[in-house]
Amino acid sequence: MSPSPSPSPRIGSIDTARFLAIALVFYGHLVEQVMYLDSAAAAAQYKWVYSFHMPLFYVLSGIVHNERRLTQGWGALLKRIARGRLVPYAVFALLPAGVALAGVPGWFPTVDLSGADGYIAGLISTARGLPAFSIPLWFLASLVVLELLHGAIGRLWRSNTALVAAITGFYVIGYVFNREVDVLSAGLIMWMAHVVPLGYAFYLTGILVRRTGVLERSFRPYGVALGAIAGLAIITLTYNLNQGPFRLLDVVVMMFGTVGHPLLFPLTALVGTATVILIARLVPAGMGLQRLGEVTLTIYCLHGFFYHFANPPLAAWMQANLPTSSAWILGAGSALAVAISLAIAATLALLLERYLPVITGGRRREAP
């Protein structure tokens, strides 16, 4: 199947899925901090979320990709990347440094901000694509390289057969490379290029799913609900079967390039991705999550402030005041905290999209 000659309209449920995906990021990073305080329940929930939430982002990025753009040339591509990726990256990767410089205490695991040398090291790291002052932005850095790669070779995947071959090939390349090379220890990080082959495999999977037309089809709600329930069950049954090998943390962390078992990782990742998309189809349009999905990039960029400044003290408070050994209480408390954080971030994102669109990627709402 050849790429569509004209862009497809937005799919509301995919916008909702994008918002659900960023909610998982907020949740995963909060329970991560509780995990560091020796909560076994938090460690289990962290591994559950991380088993699929970043592949989900790459697949969704592929789904919303407009294949007609491949015919527009390098000038248009570089302009889109500069406006939609590099500007938000630069702004939101550096703003937390200003907050820290103003004296607000924060958690910055890769740099020591007690002196000027730490800020200089953070600036150098950010320029290399590892945003030390806003670590969650590593995914945006990887998209820069991924979209340049797709601009160069995306025309090769005109048939679905070629697309499946590319998905398989890039997954194998990415897995083997990261299995053999510890990029973090070697200090070889450069715009997250080591993650790109793995990410590109999931990105192309999103393109393949969009081409099939399955997302535009209507299905009975009970069938979608059963599929979502089955997906949640499969994730829960398989996420902990993946026992590595890992580095630093015993979980899937795509930022590190460590995904564990070569077959169990994509199994849980793809099931988790499908599950979130199915759940998104069940969310009523009147809830407004589709609109929030349209500004997910900005919410994601704002997440760095929560990650570095809010989550560590919040996790300490939860550990001191809640029985975080209980998975249910931890889940309820974390979900409430994430809901409040998302409400704040979404409000700010909508304001920025309206009044300062230049720092959020410009005319992003025109994309399908």
List the helices and strands and how they pair.
Layout: H1 12-35, H2 40-50, H3 53-63, H4 73-101, H5 116-127, H6 138-153, H7 160-180, H8 183-186, H9 196-212, H10 221-238, H11 264-282, H12 289-294, H13 296-321, H14 327-355
Describe, in plain words, how this protein is organized in 3D.
The protein has 368 residues and is mainly α. The protein is built from 14 helices and no strands. It has helices at residues 12-35, 40-50, 53-63, 73-101, 116-127, 138-153, 160-180, 183-186, 196-212, 221-238, 264-282, 289-294, 296-321, 327-355. α1 (12-35) crosses α11 (264-282), α1 (12-35) packs across α14 (327-355) and α3 packs across α11. The longest helix is centred in the N-terminal third of the chain and has 29 residues, at 73-101.
